[in-house]
Amino acid sequence: MNEIEIGRGKRGRRAYSFDDIAVTPSRRTRDPEEVSLDWQIDAYHFDMPVIAAPMDSVMSPRTAIAFGQHGGLPVLDLEGVWTRYEDPEPVLAEIATLDPAVATTRMQEIYSAEIVPELITERLREIRAAGVTVAGALSPQRTQQHWKTVVDAGVDLFVIRGTTVSAEHVSSRAEPLNLKRFIYELDVPVIVGGAASYTAALHLMRTGAAGVLVGFGGGAAHTTRQTLGIHAPMASAIADVAAARRDYLDESGGRYVHVIADGGLGTSGDIVKAVAVGADAVMLGAALARATDAPGRGYHWGAEAHHGELPRGARVEVGSVASLEEVLFGPSRQPDGTTNLMGALRRAMATTGYTDVKELQRIDVVVSPHRPS
């Protein structure tokens, strides 16, 4: 444990972000064609270890279908504009043109519209009709209200996603969601998070979750560090949760829970490093919001950006760099790691001599602070 004395009355643990680490080559290399990016969670197989974040700037039913056809797992935000408005396209167009001075206030108004259960059903069935794996996300606060509608609509995977999610939420005002009982009684696999520590992740794994999302306000659209003073550097957070996965595997007699990095993954190099420190897959937000066909039209935001009482995020301009297909598979026309994400992951694995994603978790990592010029 690398602790540093902050002052005489407080010590702190040293933690690392992706910029603080790098992977190192091994003694062998491989042809990129011999590398497999396949990923499987529960009974569902994917051609790449990538989940599209359930954010309105990233996923619409149309982009979810396209992403699924490209071999990834798309997740639709079931509390977003697609379940509040019959035709959300004018709303999305307005968000992309808002003056920064009024963006938060106007988005709070837009997202104050009620969620319509019939729209949840309609959107999920639209994705299912295209023949791709169907996943929808709710926050822990809305899960008890809408879960039955989601399951009846025929989801393959259920995602419970928040800035931070605990297996034990204490409340004197309302009956909290009992994750363990909920997951046990549900007929579909559940991915839950975020978690940013060993202990929190271990408790979530004990609920029966198929996967745990790792992260706490570390994405491009989050301002959690400024608002709440809370931040979890992603490289250390993933490594901690990977340790919980290892210990839970022994504790449970062989039950494997997938570790999914969620936040701070802006470039292809970040994806490589996330896997290197223990992630089985990554959830991408801003990286996919840069696609020219993304619903955000060059802007990116999450649910925290329009919270009614304490916004902890912002609508940020990420730009548009290429089509979704080019963002994922190239060809890349920029040398900055924003396009051909899967080609870069494949190349990194080939360069360091690993044949699949699980093997890449064994690669040597060095602490090498990077200072952008």
Give a quick precis of the structure.
About 35% of the residues lie in helices and about 15% in strands. The protein is of the alpha/beta class.
Give a description of the structure.
This protein has 373 residues and is an alpha/beta fold. The chain has helices at residues 61-69, 89-97, 103-110, 117-129, 140-152, 179-185, 198-205, 224-228, 234-251, 268-276, 286-289, 324-329, 341-352, 357-360, and strands at residues 3-7, 10-13, 21-23, 39-41, 44-46, 50-52, 73-74, 76-77, 135-138, 157-161, 190-195, 211-214, 258-262, 281-284, 299-300, 316-317, 365-367. Strands 7-6-14-13-12-11-10-9-8 form a 9-stranded parallel sheet. Strand 1 and strand 2 (10-13) form a beta hairpin.
Low-confidence stretches: none
- Percent strand: 15-25%
Separate helix tally: 14
Mean pLDDT figure:
91
Quick one: overall form?
A: globular
Structure class: alpha/beta
Q: How many runs of DSSP E, i.e. beta strands?
A: 17
Distance between the amino and carboxyl termini: 31 Å
Gyration radius, rounded: 20 Å
Biggest sheet: strand arrangement: 7-6-14-13-12-11-10-9-8
Helix proportion of residues, in percent? Answer: 25-40%
Write the layout of secondary structure elements.
Layout: E1 3-7, E2 10-13, E3 21-23, E4 39-41, E5 44-46, E6 50-52, H1 61-69, E7 73-74, E8 76-77, H2 89-97, H3 103-110, H4 117-129, E9 135-138, H5 140-152, E10 157-161, H6 179-185, E11 190-195, H7 198-205, E12 211-214, H8 224-228, H9 234-251, E13 258-262, H10 268-276, E14 281-284, H11 286-289, E15 299-300, E16 316-317, H12 324-329, H13 341-352, H14 357-360, E17 365-367
Parallel strand pairs: 6-7, 6-14, 8-9, 9-10, 10-11, 11-12, 12-13, 13-14
Antiparallel strand pairs: 1-2, 3-17, 4-5, 15-16
Helix pairs in contact: 1-4, 4-5, 7-9, 10-13
